[in-house]
């Protein structure tokens, strides 16, 4: 096999009380990538359509992630990478992670799968490091593994896959304003009170339990983040109103996707998700801010071969 075309999915990280440790994979939003072996012993970004992105392999996260993999494998195989970008960079739904994950997934397949999906995570994290200055895994892990991923530990890296209740749907609103990941990180407090920590780990434990037991009501009650969301939500226009509107229309919960500006409503079933989507659309259309709006199931597979 010389060439592979893949779907590289968008992801929702920093999932509520799972800040920096919990993310999930979307199904209907993502990029397409074509990865092809070349005889030049060189990694080249040969084409990017849809968005302006760096064409130098050392500045494009796809090139950086692939180089990390090849270095570990001590391989000098060259690859050409084409990216059709549908996930806008800086949207908060893992634009950079999709490219890193898609690239290492395809290269691994073309090399006869020397690594498991889990082993690809650290290479994709090298891409995240150049995109945001932080080697976080809660976008690249669900993009590679599908479903929900929990980062139990960063050092050493240990990532767990969690079950996906079948009726879960995500409505994602992306207000087309720019919030830099670095900026939204800089406003977070570095110390928290014991009381906040207790509430947060209570909610995260309950959220994990809800995924295992298909308990949608418990899932809704546990989607609370009292540490990061109150600070970051200030950067997102009409956050409070959107939260109240979504819950009033039956959403299980509402929160910030990644470091924003995207926000998500987690819903049970297509019918409710469509209702929430329409309510958000009607509300935001009057606010004079351009936006994208997505409705997606949870993608249990992660990166897919097309
Ligand atoms: P997101 O959370 O949507 O990935 P970030 O702000 O974390 O957004 O990362 C986007 C940054 O990464 C931008 O500066 C962008 O230029 C850079 N970047 C480099 N290569 C890529 C790529 N292949 N896809 C997306 N962003 C990339």
Automatic annotation (TrEMBL):
Similarity-based family: Belongs to the GHMP kinase family. Homoserine kinase subfamily.
This protein's record includes keyword Cell inner membrane: no
Reaction(s) the record says it catalyses: L-homoserine + ATP = O-phospho-L-homoserine + ADP + H(+)
GO biological process: threonine biosynthetic process
Residue span(s) of domain GHMP kinase N-terminal: 64-147
Involved pathway(s): Amino-acid biosynthesis; L-threonine biosynthesis; L-threonine from L-aspartate: step 4/5
EC number: 2.7.1.39
Domain GHMP kinase C-terminal: 207-285
Compartments where found: Cytoplasm
One cellular component term from this protein's GO annotations in UniProt: cytoplasm
Uppermost EC category: transferase
Protein name (record): Homoserine kinase
Chain's role: Catalyzes the ATP-dependent phosphorylation of L-homoserine to L-homoserine phosphate.
GO molecular function, one term: ATP binding
Organism in which the protein naturally occurs: Christiangramia crocea
Entry keyword annotation includes rRNA processing: no
